[in-house]
Amino acid sequence: MGEPELTLDPFREGLQHHGYVEGRNISIEVRFAARFPERLPQHAASLVASKVDIIVAGGSDSIRAAQRATKTIPIVMAQTSDAVSSGFVSNLARPGGNITGISSQAVALSAKRLQLVKELLPSARVIGVLSNPRNPSHAPALKILSLAGGSLELTIRTIEVPYTRDLEVSFSSPPAREIHALLTLPDNEFFNHRERIIRLIAQARLPAVHWRKEWVESGGLASYGLDNPAMFREAAGYVHKILTGAKPGDLAVEQPTKFEFFLNAKAAKALGLSIPQSIRLQADRVFD
User: Fold this and answer.
1) How many helices (H) and strands (E) in the chain?
2) Cα 10 to Cα 4, 6, 34, 231, distances in angstroms
3) Structural domains in the chain plus CATH codes
4) CA-to-CA distance for 161 and 171, rounded, in angstroms?
5) How far is CA 154 from CA 117, 122, 126, in A?
6) Cα–Cα distance between 242 and 248 in angstroms, integer?
7) Can you give the pTM of this predicted structure?
8) Mind listing the pLDDT tens digit for each residue in 177-203?
């Protein structure tokens, strides 16, 4: 339960590292909601009905759907912003219950993205944050950004998008008209509609920092975040441990330590933005 091209290949690589080959000694039942998150509960119920041994879920919406569908089948989180605040586990060291895996702590990374905005656009004073009020990880992220903004002498304006059909309205709202730059918070709906969001950002001529490389590949200015394929490879390790007898509640939730920074030189040029050499040197890759 995640995004096909970005999750299955690294997950299969991880399984092969532990000696599992699909069709030989392991079977994978695949369910994807793509741009239709309302289908996630149905997909989760389908997997439970199929009596799978383990459910691997990428993204908070997928994990929540699996959590509601079963309290007994082990669930491995391949990707979520904050497993504790989202209510998936009681604590990271000993999660208890039937859920374990990778928790990215993406909420804490929001402050680093805000710092990058400041470095990319030193003249910025008012920063917009694209937020989905239905996403439980966004409230703590906004609190962190508010605190970080104060120390950087930046004012934070929340641009709420409860549903992606409201994107155009949100971008024309009074808070959006006041901002000098933008951050997008991690959200599956935002990611699925990233090309549309990038067009709106470009129309508003706003420098923006995102959380995944795919935003930059789609034309966004910058991203700072985690190596998502690596997290799905690591999730395969949890599958191996559970299949060999470990209980998910006894397996500590891991936090990634590798972060990636990407820049888009073409997007910067379109904005008339000069990227400092010090920023370029920090980037894992600059897309031209």
Assistant:
1) 13, 10
2) 10, 7, 18, 8
3) 4-104+227-257 (3.40.50.2300), 106-225+260-287 (3.40.50.2300)
4) 9
5) 10, 10, 6
6) 7
7) 0.82
8) 999 999 999 888 899 899 999 999 999
